[in-house]
Amino acid sequence: MASVQIGKMGIIDTTSDFSLSDGQRFNVKNDGEERITLEVQLAQMDDFISTSFDVGWNPEIVLAVKQTSQPCDLKWGY
Asked: What is the rounded CA–CA span in Å between residue 75 and residue 57?
């Protein structure tokens, strides 16, 4: 279980690659009902990796989320 404190939050649009315009790193909240696998660029990595995100807030510190055709309900927060 992750315990994160979020002061800002918004919707992740997965119809294209997603990142915050100011380059801010963020956590991902999976508001769906099932675990989802996404390709993400973590804060200190140059490449995208595939990893699973459980329902709720996840501990990974993310820089970008790659476009996906999977139906999903994702939020960003920091």
From this structure: 9
Q: What is the pTM of this model?
A: 0.90
- The predicted-structure confidence for 35-60, as pLDDT tens digits, reads as follows 999 999 999 999 999 999 999 999 99
End-to-end, the C-alpha distance of the chain in Å comes to 17
Q: What is the 3-class SS of the chain, one letter each residue?
A: CCCCCCCCEEECCCCCCECCCCCCCEEEEECCCCCEEEEEEECCCCCCEEEEECCEECCCCEEEECCCCCCCCEEEEC
7 CA to centre of own chain:
16
Which neighbouring-strand residues pair with 56?
A: 30
